[in-house]
Amino acid sequence: MTTAKRTFAPVEEQLELLERGAVDIVLRDELKKKLERSRESGKPLVVKVGFDPTAPDIHLGHTVLLRKMRHFQDLGHRVIFLIGDFTGLIGDPTGRSKARPTLTREEIEANAETYKKQCYKVLDPDATEIRFNSEWLGELGSFGFVRLAARYNVARMLERNDFKKRFNSGQTISIHEFLYPLAQAYDSVFLEADVELGGTDQLFNLNVGRDVMPGYDLEPQVLLTTPLLEGTDGTEKMSKSLGNYIGIDEPPKEIFGKIMSISDELMWRYYELCTSVSLDGIEQMQQLVERGELHPKKVKEGMAMRIIADFHDEAGAKQAREEFAKVFADRGTPEEMPEHRFAAAEGKVFLPALLQTTKLAASKSEANRLLKQGAVAIDGKRVEPGTLEVGGSAGDTWVLKVGKRRFARVHLD
Question: What is the domain-level CATH number for residue 285?
Answer without folding.
Answer: 1.10.240.10
